[in-house]
Amino acid sequence: MKKKVVSVILATAMVASMAMGCGGNNTASTNNGAAAADNGATTDNAADDAATEAADAGAAATEAVSGDLADKKVGVCIYQFSDNFMTLFRTELESYLISQGFSQENITIVDGANDQATQTGQIDSFIAEGVDVLIINPVNSSSAETITDKVVGAGIPLVYINREPDETEQQRWEDNNWDVTYVGCDARQSGTFQGEMIVDLGLDAVDLNGNGKVDYVMVEGDPENIDAQYRTEYSIKALEDAGWEVNCLSDQVGNWAQDQAQTIVANALGQYGTDVEVVFCNNDAMALGALQAIQSAGRTVGTDIYLVGVDALSEALENVINGTMTGTVFNDHFSQSHSAADAAINYLTGAGNEHYIGCDYIKVTQENAQETLDLVK
Ligand code: BGC
User: Which of 75, 247, 275, 294 sits 20 to 30 Å CA-CA off 57?
Assistant: First the structure.
């Protein structure tokens, strides 16, 4: 009980400090993603052969068990159904699971309603029901230790998605050789891509007020989420790495939500007016809210302000095509949901998985926005 109170206070303090924003160093605490990405990049022939053999073995095992997949029960916990990106993710996950041989009635997907207690109750119910595998998008990544203990204790393999548990937690899976893995992209890459899209415009175009700096507004996702932390940090780092001076006018938490971002950006534009040169949003839902505020303030993206998001939601892609958003970054929900389902299958067949399964983001500007839209539609 006492412990719970302390963590609530800590979480509250964290939200408060993040909301104060600019200048805060919210350096993220895990770097497994980079390690995994580096490992992926150094694949040589021997590794290729080994990977092919492993894939063949996996394919054979999948074939052997595929008849049985229809009888396997999959529990899927999503942190919040109303999240646009997670809606794309879970829809694709369900249809891919079915295409791989699971039967629809054995796939149960539940809404954590952005409340960890609710989600923990759902996990308890899945365990009591005896599901064969769990795919979990945690409400709070910091609850991963508790979740893992429950699920592993019940002998159920576990695939985390989208919200990456920290390094210490991932190390436990490795040390104990547990059937637990994480599937997701390295959010540092998405932040870097956002910054690079701005750098590619050239400082003369971006420094609209001519003060020699890039004056920006940052709208952050849920501060507990590593994606939000990394995107915030790495987007600005890309500008600094290009030798640009930056000036943070406002850095607020929009919790991934369009309406919250609209209010934040409207306030920032009211306060700083034409000094706002770039609006960085940790996701597209918030970029869409930012765009509403930008347009209501009579500003024009591409002419007197720039705006970038992440995810490549269809609506954001249409804006990139029309020039009403500068760019976005494709957060590949196809590859992530397929990898998550494949990882679940690998546990069921006994093929097993690495403890980190990564994927790549893709930079989207006006040049490839239509192509990306064709892909996601
Ligand atoms: C996405 C956000 C989403 C969040 C949920 C992020 O990777 O970019 O749009 O709200 O995941 O955890």
Answer: 75
